[in-house]
Specification:
17 strands; D-amino Acid Aminotransferase, Chain A, domain 1; 9-stranded mixed sheet; 26% helix; 308 residues; 8-stranded antiparallel sheet; alpha+beta
Length: 308
């Protein structure tokens, strides 16, 4: 999905013009993938402009950076205010927010420790990530031949740029095969996640989702979905999920900041259930969009933005 430029990007404490937000070609991140980022949505709710679970996104970003022995040169409060400022300066309503932290220009060797840690925040309009009808009709996916990194290879709980080389291979394979998305298995052959989404399966009114030990990213929307479903009375089981569950599941759906709550219609050309959006998926969608569209937030998930 092409990005429509906006006026300003926040870089290292300053607002710069969109087309001037540049880095040196010898920056460490260009050569070694040494970056950490978040995808956050700002919603134009019926009760005002609000960022969804900003605190949890920032918590995960700071955790990701810490795992790689780096430090963000701003407090969380400063970072939060910079995100809000970037949304307001660009006069955005509903938008996608991309804060990114990266190793900048310094040494070009593998050792990253002597390179500066730079920070940027961009915002842009971004609609339905997996297609215009994805939320209402579901999508067709495949099981990828690429697996997620095995334990003790790359830290999959860190949302780092380098990890997304694996995601790119999963996505490319799916798209070239005529699918919208791919599902990766973990190193033990259990279901892991999509290229950029967590996955849930429904069987006999129970909901299953892979645990952190299946090489998944600990998704913010995943966590929110678990809460909404449990509050609605469903049993949600976090445990290793076998591949054949994808075939016999009554319902499947992805969760993610970009994907939101996206039903899965088929896996490897086999229909999931009857091929329509399932009842539990609809319950989750209703609960989720009641928060982010209607602004009915009883859990403190929305950070409302008040214009000066």
């Amino acid at each position: 999905m092409p990005i429509t430029p906006v006026d300003k990007i926040w870089m290292n404490g300053k607002m710069v013009n969109w087309d001037q937000a540049q880095i040196h070609v010898l920056s460490h991140v260009v050569h070694y993938g040494s970056s950490w980022f978040e995808g956050i949505r700002c919603y134009d709710t019926k009760k005002g402009l609000a960022i969804f679970r900003l605190d949890k996104h920032l918590e995960r970003l700071y955790d990701s950076v810490k795992i790689y022995h780096a430090e963000i040169p701003y407090t969380r409060q400063e970072f939060e205010q910079a995100i809000i400022q970037t949304v307001l300066v660009n006069k955005m309503r509903a938008c996608y927010i991309r804060p990114i932290v990266y190793r900048g220009y310094g040494d070009v060797g593998v050792n990253p420790l002597n390179n500066p840690v730079d920070v940027a925040i961009a915002v842009w309009k971004w609609g339905t990530y997996l297609g215009a009808d994805a939320l209402s009709k579901g999508i067709d996916v495949c099981v990828s031949t690429w697996t997620r990194p095995a334990p003790n290879t790359l830290p999959t709980i860190a949302k780092s740029g380098g990890n997304y080389l694996n995601s790119q291979l999963i996505k490319i394979e799916a798209v070239k095969g005529g699918y919208v998305e791919g599902i990766a298995l973990d190193g033990n052959g259990h279901v892991s996640e999509g290229s950029g989404e967590n996955i849930f399966m429904v069987k006999n009114n129970d909901v299953y989702t892979p645990p952190f030990t299946s090489s998944i990213l600990p998704g913010i929307t995943r966590s929110s979905a678990i809460t909404i479903l449990r509050d609605a009375g469903y049993r949600v089981i976090e445990a290793p999920v076998s591949r054949e569950m994808l075939i016999v599941a009554d319902e499947l759906f992805f969760t993610g900041t970009a994907a939101e709550i996206t039903p899965i219609r088929s896996v490897n050309r086999l229909l999931v259930g009857d091929g329509n959006v399932g009842p539990i998926t609809k319950v989750l969608q209703k609960g989720f969009f009641d928060v982010v569209t209607a602004g009915n937030d009883s859990r403190g998930w929305l950070k409302f933005i008040v214009k000066d």
